[in-house]
């Protein structure tokens, strides 16, 4: 539906037929705060997308219309300076593709989508991925999906100022329907893990909360993990680059050396990597119930050991345990707000939404937004 409206809008604005491309948002089923510790993550692309219509315009000016923002912005093909707002994602990808030595021409662009902004489904990564994928196809640049993921990541770093990892862009570009992706954040090797459960949906419940401490606490957690590695290097022979290289039994042996707070942070990361490995095996064996139990364990670790949850997220996860048909739930993302992610049986979705909204509103006087998703393909061409 979005794609059809987008094409009509483009033709009306520019009187020519565009290339149509889409890229999805993502969820991460398990493996939180493991990426910057060179561990593993398990994202999947979802059925909410950013779509881009694009065509060459034979000038030196790129013209972009953002349907969601009802805003038109133009800039020079040779622009290398960040601006303000959403256009930075387009500016950055344009710049970094050319910085790689690729030759592109100026284009007309229309962007639209249904990935909720600010809900933790990586709408920004979807935008970078869709636009980069479109330029790659339009000009036959020969860039790989991983090349495009790095371009999106560099855009976030240099034009937006967000020091993100590679997971979001990677998932948006490499997604495969009915599969999650086990990504090694050190080597960037990955494998598809089956997640084909047609009787279930992934349901996100937005706490409608974003605490201002999130950014500073995130940076503090990274620093604490680095401190933990520095201490453990004194006791472990061989190369220790990150917490991934520190066995759980070694952490237990040096609990006093670490101190209780650092020990808890490090223990969470070590056990989360183990949970992810176990979770992949459960999914390969079709054991969704077992996987759901691991999600609850992850939330417990994030809340009590890593301490990045908040009362609202803890409440959402606890409430999910009371509702029949929910196999697993946890907070998703950096923490201190955002969404809980739940795996819910299809015939229980209506009652799940009703009960969660009712109980959450009674407790916090907020009406949470709910998003029903499923695992779909990554970036693709809709129409040439």
SSE blueprint:
Blueprint: H1 2-14, E1 19-28, E2 40-41, E3 43-56, E4 61-66, E5 71-76, H2 87-99, E6 107-113, H3 123-138, H4 145-160, H5 167-174, E7 179-184, E8 190-194, E9 200-210, H6 214-232, H7 248-253, H8 255-258, H9 260-284, H10 288-304, H11 311-320, E10 326-331, E11 337-345, H12 349-364, E12 370-373, E13 380-383
Parallel strand pairs: 4-6
Antiparallel strand pairs: 1-3, 1-13, 2-7, 3-6, 4-5, 7-8, 9-11, 9-12, 10-11
Helix pairs in contact: 2-3, 2-4, 3-4, 3-5, 4-5, 6-9, 9-10, 11-12
Please tell me how large the radius of gyration is: 22 Å
Helix count equals: 12
In terms of quaternary structure, the protein is: single chain
- Strand count, sense and closure of the main sheet? 6 strands, mixed
Strand content: 15-25%
Distance between the termini: 17 Å
Given the C-alpha coordinates, what overall shape results?
A: globular
**Under the CATH scheme, which class of the largest domain?**
Alpha Beta
Mean pLDDT reading: 95
Listing every helix as H and every strand as E from the N terminus to the C terminus, the arrangement reads HEEEEEHEHHHEEEHHHHHHEEHEE
- CATH topology description of the largest domain: Ribosomal Protein S5, domain 2
Q: Give the % helix.
A: 40-55%
Q: How many strands? A: 13
What ranges have pLDDT less than 50 throughout 5 or more consecutive residues?
A: none
Structural class: alpha+beta
Strand order of the largest sheet: 5-4-6-3-1-13
CATH architecture of the largest domain: 2-Layer Sandwich
Number of domains: 2
């Amino acid at each position: 539906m979005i794609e059809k409206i987008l094409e009509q809008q483009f033709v009306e604005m520019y009187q020519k037929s565009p290339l149509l491309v889409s890229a999805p948002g993502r969820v991460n089923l398990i493996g939180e705060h493991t990426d910057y510790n060179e561990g593993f993550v398990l994202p999947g692309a979802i059925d909410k997308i950013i779509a881009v219509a694009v065509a060459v315009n034979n000038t030196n000016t790129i013209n972009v219309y953002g349907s969601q923002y009802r805003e038109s912005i133009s800039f020079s093909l040779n622009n290398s300076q960040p601006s303000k707002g959403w256009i930075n994602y387009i500016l950055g990808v344009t710049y970094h593709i050319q910085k790689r030595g690729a030759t592109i021409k100026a284009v007309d662009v229309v962007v639209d989508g249904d990935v909720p902004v600010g809900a933790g489904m990586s709408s920004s990564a979807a935008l970078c991925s869709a636009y980069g994928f479109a330029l790659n196809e339009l000009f036959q640049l020969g860039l790989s999906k991983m090349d495009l993921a790095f371009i999106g990541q560099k855009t976030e770093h240099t034009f937006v100022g967000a020091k993100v990892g590679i997971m979001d862009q990677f998932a948006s570009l490499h997604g495969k329907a009915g599969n999650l992706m086990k990504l090694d954040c050190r080597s960037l090797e990955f494998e598809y893990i089956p997640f084909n459960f047609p009787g279930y949906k992934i349901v996100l419940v937005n706490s409608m909360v974003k605490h201002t401490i999130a950014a500073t606490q995130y940076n503090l957690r990274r620093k604490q993990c680095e401190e933990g590695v520095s201490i453990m290097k004194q006791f472990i022979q061989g190369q220790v680059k990150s917490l991934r290289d520190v066995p759980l039994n070694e952490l237990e042996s040096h609990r006093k050396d670490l101190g209780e707070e650092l020990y808890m942070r490090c223990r969470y990361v070590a056990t989360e990597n183990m949970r992810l490995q176990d979770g992949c095996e459960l999914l390969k064996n079709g054991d969704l119930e077992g996987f759901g139990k691991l999600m609850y364990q992850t939330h417990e670790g994030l809340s009590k050991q890593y301490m990045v949850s908040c009362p609202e997220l803890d409440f959402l996860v606890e409430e999910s345990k009371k509702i029949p048909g929910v196999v697993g739930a946890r907070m998703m993302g950096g923490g201190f707000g955002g969404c809980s992610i739940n795996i819910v049986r299809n015939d229980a979705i209506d009652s799940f939404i009703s009960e969660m909204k009712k109980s959450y509103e009674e407790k916090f006087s907020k009406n949470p937004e709910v998003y029903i998703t499923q695992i779909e393909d990554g970036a693709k061409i809709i129409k040439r």
